[in-house]
Amino acid sequence: MxxxxxxxxxxxxxxxxxxxxxxxxxxxxGEARAWERVMDKYQRLVxxxxxxxxxxxxxxxxxxQLTFTILIQSLDSLxxxxxxxxxxxxxxxxxxxRAMEKGRRERPGREDDLAETPWLLGNExxxxxxxxxxxxxxxxxxVSEPCRRLLKALYLDETExxxxxxxERLDMPVGSIGPTRARCLQRLxxxxxxx
Length: 195
Fold this sequence. Notes:
The chain is elongated and about 60 Å long. The protein contains ten helices and no strands. The longest helix has 23 residues, at about 85-105. It folds into two domains: about 10-105, Orthogonal Bundle (Rna Polymerase Sigma Factor, Chain: A); about 115-195, Arc Repressor Mutant, subunit A (Orthogonal Bundle). The chain is about 70% helix and about 0% strand. It is mainly alpha-helical and about 200 residues long.
């Protein structure tokens, strides 16, 4: 199944105009130009989500088509104040996870996935693992590189390094790890709280 959308040829030349509110209103009225603008504005984003999880171009195209099909089916439930970008990204991620779970069922025995690492998230369902990993990863991407490296070393390194090992690895004094950790955790909480 390939990526298909009415008016796709017009998208290449289109210029993104209009707020999400305008686009939702136009789509609800059945305006072709509004659909073209939605596609122009969000097609790359939606396609990039399954690709970022390692899905093939064909599977990513399937997820994209499904995501925009669900948008058509869900238009009546969207308000004009809806955040279309976040809504589309959430739908795309959920269907990406489903495609990945289906792929894992078809290819048993693959244990190298971060979401399959038992020490990271315990006994939660695979879709919940992916959602938590994605949420945490997005939060970590919004803090500084030194904070990201420190938090990953402290909380996500399976080897559970000591402060001395972290100090050597990150070239920072052992005595500054605790206070820096507190500041970095606060920044991460702020980043995650804004989602």
